[in-house]
Amino acid sequence: MTVIIPNAKIAALWNGALQARLRQAPLEAYLRSHGQKWVLSGETRLTDNLACATIYMVNVALNECIEEHPGALSADQHPAVGQVACAVSASLASLIQEPTQWRTAALVATARLLERHIGLSAAAHTAASAAREYGAGVNSGAHDVEVLRIGHAARSAVEANGAAETAKAVRLIVQRLASMSTRAPVGAPDAAAPAYDLGGATFRSSTT
Hints:
By secondary structure, the chain is mostly helical. The protein has one domain. Helix content is 67%, strand content 4%. The chain has helices at residues 8-33, 45-68, 77-95, 102-118, 120-140, 145-160, 163-179, and strands at residues 195-198, 201-204. The chain has a two-stranded antiparallel ribbon. Helix 1 packs parallel to helix 2 (45-68), helix 3 runs antiparallel to helix 4 and helix 3 (77-95) packs antiparallel against helix 7. The longest helix is centred in the N-terminal third of the chain and has 26 residues, at 8-33. Residues 183-208 have low confidence and may be disordered.
């Protein structure tokens, strides 16, 4: 029998890869348990998985928000979605000890979350603005307490992989978005505003 002993450099790489996979295991387990796709390999694996978890959690909240407060998302809620996505992505990136990966994940998540409401171009612009604002808050330490609370709740949800923790995070996001709403009264939409058909229900955008 031959025993192959790797040199110190290769052994360190193997050990580093194993430790990284162990750190990322909670995120992958969360995605699996909630029926979401996860990526096991590739250069964008980390950001793809972070974005997927962020989209899942925030999208559940968006759907609840629309059910509770019928109508299109208001213009003030668009950047709020971006800030929430940044907070969730940043907290999850911190959980798996990959803190620099949050920005790309947040950009992707925000654009995908808002695309159906305001179109891809406007969604991408909003995502970039939200990431800049959130990044500036990180550097200055001047973050919104409610946004930080959402991030912490999202991290707890993934860490515990429990329904109650996820429900708490979703509820905080719904409350945040509802507090930012400046919709026109239901029944008096702007006739000139574009409408979007989402699953048989028409939502009218507050943007032109």
